[in-house]
Amino acid sequence: MADFNNREQMPRVVVGVCGGVAAYKAAELVRALQQRGCEVRVAMTRAAEEFVRPLTFSSLTGHRVMTSLWEEANETGAAVAEIEHIAEAQWADVVVIAPATAHTIAKMAHGLADDFLSTMLLATPAPVVVAPAMNVNMWNHAATRASVATLRERGVTFVEPDSGYLACGMVGSGRLANVETIAQAVIDAVGSRGVKQDLVGETVLVTAGGTREAIDPVRFLGNRSSGKMGYAIAEAARARGAEVILISAPTALVAPVGCALVPVTTAEEMRAAVMEHLARATVVIGAAAVSDFRAARVSEAKLRREGGTTLELEATEDILRGVSDTRGPGTLVIAFAAEMDSDVERARVKMRAKGADAIVLNDVSRAGVGFESDRNAAVFVTADAAVEIPEMTKRAMADRVLDGVVALRVYGRPA
Q1: pLDDT tens-digit profile of 360-396?
Q2: N or C, which terminus of the chain has less Cβ within 10 Å?
Q3: Whether 38 is catalytic
């Protein structure tokens, strides 16, 4: 399996921030990209600094924010940023401008370069994604439309602004697109710069989220799963060329673009959905936290505290065991195990019980990783190997898990 801590595999993104009310949303975009395993740096126009301070972005990214071609001089007297705008242009796998103002879009179309961001844009060979945000009349103006058309002809990707109530009080197109939509466009653009497409031809079925088992009309048995790991795997598989079926218990997440979402609630609903779509799947990854138990009898009325109540439970079916018993030839099954330790041998026992080809062992007792966190750490366990995945974002870990899937497909074991 690939080196699970190889930072060179992380997509490198420069986020360009222009002056507009939506500039604060660029901080949300930075976090969304980091959660997808990207290393992010930020360049700001002077106007953007009137809305958000550079310190915000340097704190989020751990990198100095580029704001001017004429920064502090070094010991030779040369301005540091005179060279840095070229270095940043070459460093980036993709550049995203969010929010992009009408002024910056016009400068890009005409090849003007009078600040750090516009000069870097002329120097970069990386794909460029632009997310406009402006007044509806500015967005619809013939000059802006001409600039957009010119840039599209040059291969620039635009994430169309949303319609709605604008900061100026008008209603119409011009609101910055949803941050998750912009982040997905960036990931898709990275794919055009050599992100491995090693899952083309595969259909990956992913389960995600925590199932809910009703006790009465208002209560249920549940767990702390946020669904973030499963959604990250679905997104990563889609980016690597797979067709993705995401079967999800309730979460607060937006399904990754391009994935077929099948919403479910209970363990039985998830089992039925998995079995319905299993014939299409070449890889099944069970990242959902499926309840092991449900109420033997669901009360038709709200249970009352008075008099006390004993809740009788019964076991739910093991979904992956059923998958392993009925899967087609060549279909890989990857299980997840949330444990309070990192006992690899016990994980293997669980893997064999489920009939899985591999199991991802999560030690959820560790602070800051696992349930509800944006970060995770695990061990990718097979019958004869155990590869540690050190702590990283769930999006980065998703790719490491998929590296293991590819290695199983090619070599029959983690490489």
Answers
A1: 998 877 777 767 788 889 999 999 999 999 888 888 8
A2: C
A3: no
Whole-prediction pTM value?
0.66
The full 3-state SS of 223-291, as one line of letters, equals CCCCCHHHHHHHHHHHHCCCEEEEEECCCCCCCCCCCEEEECCCHHHHHHHHHHHHHHCCEEEECCECC
Kindly state the DSSP code that residue 63 receives in the 8-state scheme: S
Domains of the chain: 7-191 (3.40.50.1950), 203-411 (3.40.50.10300)
- CA angle (48, 41, 397) in 5-degree steps: 135
CB 160 within 8 A of CB 363: no
Distance CA 380, CA 388 (A): 6
SS3 call for 90:
helix
Does 162 have pLDDT greater than 70?
yes
Task: Please give the Cα distance from 279 to 270 (Å, whole number).
Answer: 15
Q: Supply the DSSP symbol for 169.
A: S
What is the C-alpha to C-alpha distance for residues 71 and 97, in angstroms, rounded to an integer? 21
Please identify which of the residues 18, 38, 168, 259 carries the catalytic annotation: 168
Element (H, E) at 196: none
- The CA distance from 133 to 43, in Å, is 17
Q: Which residues contact 348 (CB under 8 A, 6 or more apart)?
A: 359, 381, 383
Residues 6+ apart with CB under 8 A from 25: 98, 99, 176, 179
Query: Could you tell me if 250 and 265 are in contact, meaning their C-beta atoms sit under 8 angstroms apart?
Result: yes
Highest mean pLDDT out of 42-46, 155-159, 183-187: 42-46
Query: Could you give phi then psi for residue 96, rounded to 5 degrees?
Result: -125, 130
pLDDT tens for residues 215-248? 999 999 999 899 999 999 998 899 888 999 999 9
Q: Which residue has the higher pLDDT, 49 or 8?
A: 49
Please give the single-letter amino acid code of residue 121: L
Backbone φ/ψ region at 94: left (φ over 0), alpha (ψ -120 to 50), beta = beta
Percent of the chain clearing pLDDT 70 (strictly above):
89
